[in-house]
Amino acid sequence: MLWNEHSTKMLNLAFRMLKDRDRAEDILMDVFVGIPDAIRAFRGQSALGTWLYRLTVNACLMKLRAEKRHGELEELNLDTIVEETLGKQEKATHDQFDPELLQLGLNALPAETRSMLWLKDAEDLDVKDLAEIYGMPDGTIKARLSRARHFVKDYITEKLKNA
Amino acid sequence: MLDKIDFSKLERITPREDSWSKVCARLDAKAAATAHRGNILSIRSLFSAIPLAASLVLVSLTAILPAIESSTEEISLENVASEDITSWYNGLGNSTNDDDFETFEETVGFSYLTKE
């Protein structure tokens, strides 16, 4: 059943994007209620799971825009921060991060990039699926993922240094 | 590209137990609302179809009726022909003798034609 198979992954994606459990649950329910209408646009070109992720990402982005949480959406900040930190820090070598710090680092990313990194590294989606979900070329996805990883690792390194 | 970040230690949440039933309830309510809207729409379309059909019937009747009346106007033989002609016409087929078959006088018939 669709719910049993996909709801947990969709909920976690929404939770990463919105950083709030209740709102993530609302989004999950909204997406499932909207599936009978949205299914008309589904042409079977992508996997059902990929399509459901796309619905979830779009619903979360719409919610953030409606709430005018533009800080969650802007990519510009990330570019600046990464460029600054890349020159100063040596390449991060941590494989295992403290979960709390990792959560903080992840939360510091813009929502869309955060969800992208989550889907790639936590849910193991490949770049082609991500390109499908976000409607971006593969190269853009790879670049964003690379920047996001740099950002998170540098964020954690910085925090550990100051601790 | 940097190696993947290990998110395995991050908390993973699961949907609440009542979430699916809430989804079902919302879907049912939505289906009911759609059905109700469908009824209203059909009534609306019915109400708009009746006057439209009535208008079309009226217009077509207005156009066709005068033509039908003029084409079906009856011309009575008695009004336009003399008594001789009508008596001959009424007597046709009444005779029992084939040899005694009456023929209409040409002159009378001619006069009828010239009258017309």
Poorly predicted segments of chain B: none
Helicity level of chain B: 55-70%
CA-based shape of chain B: rod-shaped
Query: Kindly state the mean pLDDT of chain A as a whole number?
Result: 86
What's the number of structural domains of chain B? 2
Q: Provide the succession of SSEs of chain B.
A: HHHH
SS elements, strand count of chain B: 0
- Structural class of chain B, please? mainly alpha
Q: How would you name the oligomeric state of the polypeptide chains in this document?
A: heterodimer
Rg of chain B, Å, rounded: 44 Å
Q: Which word captures the global form of chain A? A: globular
Describe the main β-sheet of chain B briefly.
none
CATH domain class of the largest domain in chain A: Mainly Alpha
**What's the number of helices of chain A?**
8
How is the main sheet of chain A built?
none
Given as residue ranges, the uncertain stretches of chain A (5+ residues, pLDDT < 50) are 85-94
Biggest interface in this structure? A-B, 35 and 23 residues
CATH superfamily (homologous) name of the largest domain in chain A? Winged helix-like DNA-binding domain superfamily/Winged helix DNA-binding domain
Report on the architecture of this protein.
The complex is a heterodimer of chains A (163) and B (116). In chain A, 74% of the residues lie in helices and 0% in strands. By secondary structure, chain A is mainly α. Chain A has two domains: 68 residues, Rna Polymerase Sigma Factor, Chain: A (Orthogonal Bundle), CATH 1.10.1740.10; 91 residues, Arc Repressor Mutant, subunit A (Orthogonal Bundle). In chain A, helix 1 crosses helix 6 and helix 5 crosses helix 8. About 6% of the residues of chain A have low confidence. Chain B has 116 residues and is mostly helical. Chain B folds into two domains: 56 residues; 43 residues, no CATH class. Helix content of chain B is 66%, strand content 0%. The longest helix of chain B is centred in the middle third of the chain and has 53 residues.
